[in-house]
Fold these 3 entries.
Entry 1:
Amino acid sequence: MYTVLIIDDEEKLRSLLARIVSLEGFEVIEASTGKAGLKRLETQDVDAVLCDVKLPDGNGVDLVKEIKAKQPLCEIILLTAYGNIPDGVQAVKNGAFDYITKGDDNNKIIPLLHRAVEKVQLAKRVAHLEKRVGSKYSFKNIIGKSKLILQAIELAQKVAVTDATVLLLGETGSGKEVFAQAIHHNSKRCKENFVAINCSAFSKELLESEIFGHKAGAFTGAIKDKKGLIEEANKGTLFLDEIGEMPLELQAKLLRVLEAREYIKVGDTKTLTADVRVIAATNRNLEEDVRQDKFREDLFYRLNVFTIVLPSLDERKEDIPLFVQHYLNEFPARLNKVITGIEPAALQLLQQHNWKGNVRELKNIIERACILAEGELITPEDLPVEFRFAALPANTGQLSAFSLASVEMLHIQRVLNHTKGNKTEAARLLDIGLTTLYRKIDEYKLGG
């Protein structure tokens, strides 16, 4: 139910209006003065206000600003006995939804109220979505408690409130875009666009068109003008992932954007301006690329205003349990499965692994394990076979991870785990004699 506050010092008119509005399904609260109305707004959320212009303690036109200060999403309809254009104009400037004359416009009040509350509800939905987005990209949601990741978060928080260009360095899959999003959504540009592009995913020609836009006829297939990402990100943030892969010719154009906030579309001669913050990221050693003339030195120094180095997952393995729990809160529900945790042995295998793909690789491994899991816990058997080779007993000699003996040993151990050490059942499942199984267990020094 929507709530309407009626502010009017004429009791009979206020009561009549309250009756009419309540019959339309609105909850109505009343106040006889501007001060009393503002007091009600301190204790109750209101969707719309019907306010007389002439009040004993002030003017309703001026009261609009005070109402908006207390409840910004609330809409105000001003009622006056003697309407005049200057008051109406000023009322709208102050934030009023509408300004109508009593008596002549009585039949407009209810339709206006419905339109006003529709606008309020839309504004509330937008505010809710913005809050969810802001929460999603909060620095608090970046997973990790290791020293290196906390240092990176602290740096990102400090630079987020500025307009400085940021360079994020880190291995593939280490979370560079997550940091870029967090920096944007915690900056003064948060209500504007965050636009991202991977510079390694396009040819030189396509990348130039994507970033800077083009004019119709600039090249074959350019049948109409196209906005570039710089234009799309105006007032917001442009995230250039894998900046080290950008061709040298385009680096000069990007440098112009950073130095003078100017650029030219492909096929155009007109210089355009853009107010855009640039966050760049790479897994390359740009200083080495500069020495080898693969990256412009002047662009490097323009990008290198504020550098944040993101640690690899191998440098922060103490954070792996946090990531695992996070993904176990996400994937099982999506897969319609009940998985409550991970066996210590499986977690140990994850912490022993060499994570070349970093967090992205870990996420894929956990999703795969959730698909394969038959119980409520992720087990070593749910992990890829190369993870289990890391746990081979030390006394297995020189067995290779690719030898048939290694595969046989792992398979026997997996069956023994499945049967919870029941060797008779294990021999049946393996389709071998019990004596043979005992010989294999002794040969490979397996545990039952």
Entry 2:
Amino acid sequence: MRRTQLYLDDQLWSALHARARREKTTISELVRQAVRERYVGNLESRKEAMQRFVGIRKADGNDRDARVEVRRLRRGSRLDRLADR
């Protein structure tokens, strides 16, 4: 663990101090939790989401090349697609 120093305005310090007392913890622990949730936890959830997404096209049994799929979707003109709406 590394030590760091932060400058907090009075309003933020008061809010953290009150919450730390209410939760019977330290301001330092509240800051560590907030940093984990904002920068680490979010990264972990994004990684998990990407891992679930990888291979999703192959899961439906369709192994077409992505270029072929894009060409199929782009077939026709924009006006034709808009007319179908």
Entry 3:
Amino acid sequence: MTITTIPADLPLWRYYADRRALYRRLTFGDFAEALGIMVRIGVAADKADHHPEWTNVYNRLDIWLTTHDTGGVSERDHALARVIDAIVGPAAAG
């Protein structure tokens, strides 16, 4: 089952219809800080066996969450978004 709405507990995320994905941009002080967060998110994602699509340019990290098996956003994406929010908090909002 795919989901196209953002739950109230994920206010920093957006739904991108063209990618059928949740999206959030994170901005940090420098590359080292962004890379450190990527590692923390990566470890959590690997434990959940659900991996983000992302790009990193210097201090910016763009993240898209989608479940390819279902062709869109699933509860797995919402769960990983919550984990990412817990790791970075609102301060990294881009």
